[in-house]
Specification:
Layout (H helix, E strand, L loop, with lengths): L1 H13 L4 H12 L7 H15 L4 H20 L5 H54 L16 H40 L10 H26 L8 H19 L1 H6 L3 H16 L2 H5 L8 H21 L4 H25 L4 H7 L12 E2 L2 E2 L9 E13 L5 E13 L3 E5 L6 H8 L7 E6 L8 H4 L3 E4 L10 H6 L4 H6 L1 H14 L19 H18 L4 E5 L7 H16 L6 E5 L11 E6 L4 E6 L9
Parallel strand pairs: 5-9, 5-10, 7-8, 8-9
Antiparallel strand pairs: 1-2, 3-4, 3-6, 10-11
Helix pairs in contact: 2-3, 4-5, 4-6, 5-6, 5-10, 5-12, 6-8, 6-13, 7-12, 8-10, 19-20
């Protein structure tokens, strides 16, 4: 019987008003052209359109909850209507919990829809900006950090956006409540003249004033109590889940180079999206942002207050137009105050809205490399992986001073060989590698990939690259995930036994044998820096063997490893490079000149002349044992 009644009530009341009319009412009460900018308006429209997606059911139930509350207070002020007051109290006591429960059901759905929609849009457009920053040599400064030229701004937005959106949503809901309070006040002002009677005598008025003051004090106490009782639950699991998500976001941006190299940005962004959506489906997480007025504890307090209010008003049994007008004025002030509190929260979404408005960006296509060798459009034999012609590199210090690294350099790097670059600290070794990868702007001159392509970009050669620095690029996941990262899943399925045998071989060889049994459970962030560096190096070998990596940029990649292990790594790389089965070129950057013997060519950067000198390494010095 109860379900039949409320189904009828829902069809009759909840679904009668047209969606477009509700949308116009909300826009009328919320949009303020004198105060809001376009980003603010866009965010408000996103919130309203999200409610519209489920036909404003949440908004309709919220209005009914507010209406019932206001109606109960109004009836208490009607003189000599004892039966009406008691029946109204009974109706509210019975119906409000049901309405509040229905509201909460649709509120959670609305919150999940909102997070899902905007995070998917953000994910898509964040990719455009990240790739644009990289391919345009970070000249797109709007979403870059001045200190290190990375995508730090997007990283920071990513870390906060899922919370910021729900914060704005929470203030939006509070504003809706105040709007409906104000509207209900206007409704009851219109019907009051047909119900109210004249005042009592002076003695009765004094008694009523005393009772009214007592009731006001109760209301103040009620508001203070409910205001300090925001949801407090056991959020340990939610905190751990959010901490894990933030770590994964940090590691995503820390490892953006290897992600781009392996063309897994779509996969990684999808993983982040799934984790974000999983978090936003967490009950404890959402409870931080739900509308307080529909929580069970709050509803019970409202019911108790209703009982006290009804008893008090039965004794007072008097009202006036002034009191009702005062109530409406108060509601109006609350509405205005709530609106501008909401407006003050909107700026936390400005960067997010800017990203939503970002235009699609298409990266350059990969330069083909077929039959274990590069394609020469002129059908000539390719001898050089990179050719430098009148190359000048410079960088600008924080003080604005320009520093020349190389000037008018002409140089050829032979394909399939090892190139060892050394020089004093700050001479430009890493800058040269970045220039070869097209990760920085070239001041003048050209660099030709394969001696042919002078307009190549980072994305057109990323398929062939692996770049390892002294800071190991590892994800906040298990060792196995980090070791096989970038290898095609089809390869892992088809050559699974060989993959595991290779992993085991290198873990034994590089002193990580104790982690073999737990490689799929041990998190990479729990191991030492030296061990982390060895994990990254094992991934390097896996890329050579299973991912057909063609160019290795190794910048102080053994800085946290002892001399004995370092020698073993260089020797193994050298042995692998001599194997005709593989075809790759190595660029070493190191301060340790002892390892120069593992190269075919060595290069010293002269900081005085801004030049680089090429030398053939004496093969007799290379020791493979």
């Amino acid at each position: 019987m109860e379900r039949i009644f409320f189904n009828y009530f829902e069809k009759l009341i909840i679904r009668t008003i047209d969606d477009s009319l509700i949308e116009k009412i909300l826009l009328f009460f919320i949009i303020d052209n004198d105060y809001l900018n376009e980003n603010d308006k866009q965010m408000i429209k996103i919130l309203i359109e999200n409610d519209k997606k489920i036909h404003f059911i949440r908004v309709r139930y919220l209005f009914i909850v507010v209406f019932l509350t206001f109606y109960g207070y109004f009836v208490d002020d009607v003189e000599d209507q004892f039966i009406l007051r008691i029946s109204t109290a009974g109706i509210i006591y019975y119906s409000r919990p049901v309405m509040a429960k229905s509201y909460r059901k649709y509120e959670k759905k609305t919150m999940i829809n909102l997070e899902s929609k905007i995070l998917k849009l953000f994910n898509k457009n964040a990719k455009y900006i990240i790739t644009k920053n990289i391919e345009t040599n970070r000249n797109y400064e709007k979403y870059n950090d001045d200190d290190d030229g990375t995508n730090m701004v997007i990283q920071n937005i990513y870390l906060s956006i899922y919370n910021n959106i729900l914060i704005v949503y929470e203030y939006y809901t509070k504003l809706l409540k105040e709007i409906f309070d104000f509207i209900c006040g206007l409704i009851f002002i219109c019907i009051r003249p047909f119900i109210f009677k004249t005042k009592y005598g002076i003695k009765r008025n004094i008694i009523n004033i005393i009772l009214s003051i007592s009731l006001v004090q109760y209301v103040i106490g009620f508001n203070n109590t409910t205001g300090s009782n925001k949801y407090k639950g056991n959020r340990q699991n939610e905190k751990e889940e959010e901490h894990k998500l933030k770590n994964n976001i940090l590691y995503f941006f820390k490892n953006i180079n290897i992600i781009i190299e392996n063309n897994t940005i779509d996969k990684e962004l999808k993983n982040l999206l799934n984790q974000l959506l999983q978090l936003t489906n967490n009950k404890e997480f959402l409870n931080k942002y739900v509308f307080m007025a529909t929580e069970n504890k709050f509803v019970k307090r409202v019911i108790n207050y209703k009982v006290v209010s009804t008893v008090t008003c039965l004794i007072i049994n008097e009202t006036s137009l002034t009191q009702l007008l005062s109530m409406v004025k108060t509601r109006c002030l609350y509405y205005v105050e709530s609106k501008y509190c909401f407006f003050k929260k909107l700026p936390i979404t400005h960067d997010f809205i800017d990203i939503l408005n970002e235009k699609p960006y298409q990266v350059a296509k990969t330069i083909p490399w077929i039959n274990n060798g590069p394609v020469d459009p002129l059908d000539h034999r390719v001898e050089n992986i990179f050719v430098l012609e009148n190359l000048t590199l410079e960088y600008e210090s924080k003080g604005g001073h320009k520093n020349i690294v190389l000037e008018n350099v002409n140089l050829k790097f032979e394909i399939g060989k090892s190139h060892f670059i050394y020089g004093n600290s700050g001479c430009g070794k890493t800058t040269l590698l970045s220039a070869l990868m097209k990760r920085i702007k070239i001041f003048s001159g050209v660099i030709k990939f394969l001696g042919i392509y002078d307009e190549y970009t980072y994305f057109s050669i990323r398929r062939y690259l692996t770049y390892i620095t002294s800071e190991s690029a590892l994800f906040y996941k298990d060792l196995y995930y980090n070791i096989i990262y970038g290898i095609d899943e089809k390869v892992i399925m088809e050559r699974g036994i060989e993959v595991m045998e290779t992993i085991t071989k290198y873990m034994n060889l590089f002193g990580l044998d104790k982690y073999i049994p737990t490689m799929k459970t041990t998190n990479a962030h729990k191991i030492s820096k030296g061990q982390a560096q060895r994990v990254a190096i094992i991934r390097l070998f896996m890329g050579i063997i299973f991912n057909d990596t063609r160019i290795l940029f190794l910048d102080e990649f053994t800085s946290n490893i002892d001399n004995k292990m370092e020698k073993l790594i260089y020797t193994e790389l050298r042995t692998l490079q001599k194997n005709p089965k593989y075809n790759f070129t190595i660029f070493y950057v190191s301060h340790n000149l002892y390892n120069i013997k593992y190269s075919d060519y060595n290069y010293e950067i002269d900081t005085e002349r801004h030049s680089i000198e090429q030398n053939i390494t004496n093969i007799n010095q290379v020791q493979l044992s």
